[in-house]
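Researcher: Here's a chain I'd like modeled. Treat it as a single chain, no partners, no ligands.
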Amino acid sequence: MKLSPGDPVENYLRASHVSITAETLASTRKALGLDKPVPVQYMNWVGNLLKGDFGVSYSKKVPVIDLVSEAIVPTFQLGLFSFLILLLTAPILGIISAVNKNSFIDYIVQALSYTGVSVPTFWLGYILIIIFAVSLKILPVSGRGGLENLILPCITLVTPLVAQTTFLIRKSILEQMEKPHVENAVIRGVSRKKVIINHLLRNAAIPIVTVLSSNIMFLLTGSVLIEEIFSWPGIGKLFATAVRTGDFPLIQIMLLFFGVMSVIVNEITQIMIKYIDPKLRLKEKTGM
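Model: Modeled as a single isolated chain. Structure tokens:
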């Protein structure tokens, strides 16, 4: 943050409608504690954090915790709907592609996945705006409102994730199909449905859960560009504004938020993996 262009003190003074002079810069820098060495500034911030003082936004002049609290709901809303789309599409496409390897359906799914991975997110967002908001006028272009406002940002956000996750699920299923127990099940005449559910999905569940969990963090932290394009008032847009204005207190609390969310998602993932894989539960019980 210290190496980023711009002076946060100047931005602070502009937001306060105070004339920028050498004297006001020096006095404000001292009042904000920005004249001290970086390690001292950090320790002061940690000390205030432990006391429940998260700081005040330089640009908005309100407690940063209030700004983050307001932005969390729109981001969670966008992330939840995007994750539901991901959950309902990627596993199905990956399984269909894998069990129909080298078929016309497989080639179509792979072609769509390659396209989804290759298309830049910002370009996709603008194309969707031009088609559905400007030309057809059937969807709103920006802002937060009803469910219709979620459609374009959700599609833009989730498209590369669906494509990437479909590839990974297809790969995991194909690896399981080569295992001896799956081949034996097919030879024994086990129905295709039972082979997919009892043998392929069960054994491919761990990498699938891991991939989906990692996508949750991307949906929460990787939505900066999407929220900027669609003027979505969430964490991503707030973070982008904070970086542009050099709003240190706001940047710091948001980085802390991203870190805490990462730890929470990782812990939930580990719990789910242990629940799915009995071997891991047995190892934990025996200590081996």
